[in-house]
Amino acid sequence: MFTVRTRSSGSPARTGTLRLTHGDVRTPAFVPLATKGVVKTLEPHEVAGLGYELIFANTFHLLLAPGPELVARFGGLHGLMRWDRPIVTDSGGFQVFSMGHGNVADEVKGRGQRAGREREGAILAIEEEGVRFRSYVDGRERFLSPEGSMEVQAALGSDIALVFDECTPFHATREYTARSTERTHRWLRRCLSWHARHGPEGQVVYGIVQGGVEQDLRRESAQTVAASACDGIAIGGSLGADKAQMREVVAWATTELDRRAPARPRHLLGIGEVDDLIAGVELGIDTFDCAMPTRLGRHGVALVPDPLARWRVDLTKASWRNSVDPILDGCPCPACAHGYSRAYLHHLLRAGELTALRLVTLHNLGFVARLMEDLRAGIDAGRLEEVASALRAGGAPGATSCTAG
Amino acid sequence: MFTVRTRSSGSPARTGTLRLTHGDVRTPAFVPLATKGVVKTLEPHEVAGLGYELIFANTFHLLLAPGPELVARFGGLHGLMRWDRPIVTDSGGFQVFSMGHGNVADEVKGRGQRAGREREGAILAIEEEGVRFRSYVDGRERFLSPEGSMEVQAALGSDIALVFDECTPFHATREYTARSTERTHRWLRRCLSWHARHGPEGQVVYGIVQGGVEQDLRRESAQTVAASACDGIAIGGSLGADKAQMREVVAWATTELDRRAPARPRHLLGIGEVDDLIAGVELGIDTFDCAMPTRLGRHGVALVPDPLARWRVDLTKASWRNSVDPILDGCPCPACAHGYSRAYLHHLLRAGELTALRLVTLHNLGFVARLMEDLRAGIDAGRLEEVASALRAGGAPGATSCTAG
Fold first, then answer.
1. Which positions in chain B touch A324 (Cβ < 8 Å)?
2. What ipTM did this prediction achieve?
3. Which of A123, A389, B121, B323 could form a disulfide with B342 if both were Cys (CB 3.0 to 4.6 A apart)?
């Protein structure tokens, strides 16, 4: 289901194609979130129009509403959403455990402990069999097990299912992480076993590498997952306290995977900042998902080729009140191509107009799509280093030499 | 600037064309609100794509933010918004007075007194010179006069400006309404006088008929406005406690206008329910504006050809949880044409997904656009009565004999 086209000479980076039931996905690729069955503010055909071939839906949220039975009655998520390209579903582990461990984005990625306490109690018990929790939709007690997660994902009809794992937080002890990672490996076997017997035809399964920030645990986890019969491999859990550590932790995993499962596709869970995407591609990651481009969009923050500003411009700031400039000169996204000024977007954002949230979302997803296209073109042309340098220095995606010509 | 094409034989209804600086508008027409410089949730090109040729922007809100100076620097609203078709701006009177008289939609239209007290105090003084009020944006004291309103509308660069009027509420006494209507007439003269000297080339001015629900005051007001040099005539203020009274009040005005200003276009302010649009067209109204189709859309309520349900279906209701049907079979709007089921829209609305607010807005505006197209076709074919009956009986807009063939 995965074909490598070009291997980079100077790095583990590679281009390839995922051949899935609902179509092909050119890699490396960013995968926009369709958490509750929609890419927030957009229609599916618009996401496809930006060049995306794969979206990432959320088993946990869709289990609670509208529920797998309803989704199955519509012929799966594809039928419900009217999206005819591939879909990957996560297992729900990330969300279930975030209820116990606190705010996921902050906590699992190691950015502090706030919000943890508020939501404590939503998770009721973590057992070998699975996890008991309370639904945020109707307050009912629910149970999710490895087999249960695979069953829901079968009903959702995704092209790629992820195995159920415990997503250990940054602040877990080494002992907790070790025990948790072992249980995740036992759950991996249960998921694969359920899927071999009951999985829908055409759905492939990715295992998940855990192990926190402990080198030996990460490497062992990568070895264990690589030794399993999974079709692809995701890297999850805590990746460290900062970007440097994150890259180190990812490299431990990818080094093992390069050795033991070079032909299987790799997904990096929850990572999608511009510099992290470039670094991830250089480490040999094939796909990425992240809330960042869409979430920033809904906060009026647009992506621009400005590394010193973390590739961001906050359009809600008063400095843009009079700006006649578009978000980004020459950008082909609908927001820029239709000629809306920063001043107009600023006005709409200040006035709380939903149109603006959508326009900045379109811009951000367009920006990331072109970034990935540049990286793919760079690898295929044997010039990844040059392309990555240009992008890191503030080159606009879509304007690098490999794609512009 | 207005040409009547066909006069209905059985009623004062007529089709025509408004020839404005930014293009032609076929009438009768519904005019979607772009209150703060955007039709909520949509882009301008999408509004045009639904068939709309004119939008309605709000002087009061745009005065406060982003301010007329900024709008003028962008070449007016057309430049700021990137909308190249005609725009009508109201005068701000409706909003200014609603601060003193309470919630506009409920109070001015006679539907109770709630919300009035909460907002009292935002209006500081009503004087012959104009109105002093406090800005909801920054709390600053502001002043709006007839001349000031026209000056702002000149800066906005609308195709049609409305004169500054006092919008008298339903619960005002006859004496208050009489005095207020007289002042509105003095303000009409001041507006026209300012505009004759300073108005931008290509901008036309509509006078406004007030007079509340008093027959003699309404008729006198219509006579006074018809006797002025205004280019078109709007009907505003309180139109009564129910639909029957509203139609009676509108008829007093249109009867006078038919006699004294038959060649000038007429706009009915703030009215846009399906049955009211049909009745308004029969009374000889040429254009209508109303928040209803867009506001309902943002609350998940879609327009359908079901008179017994006031042409509405509330998609947030649990009854649609499993519905595979689109909002409306055969509807060409983006929401229906893309095949989204009521179940999917219900799920998205319950999940708070902005995509759904936009889809229902698109559907509702599409519905109203086709309704108006049917009424125009009915008049031109000499079959308005038949078309109106079919629509009132639950015929789907766009499927009546005059347009379907």
1. 74
2. 0.95
3. B323
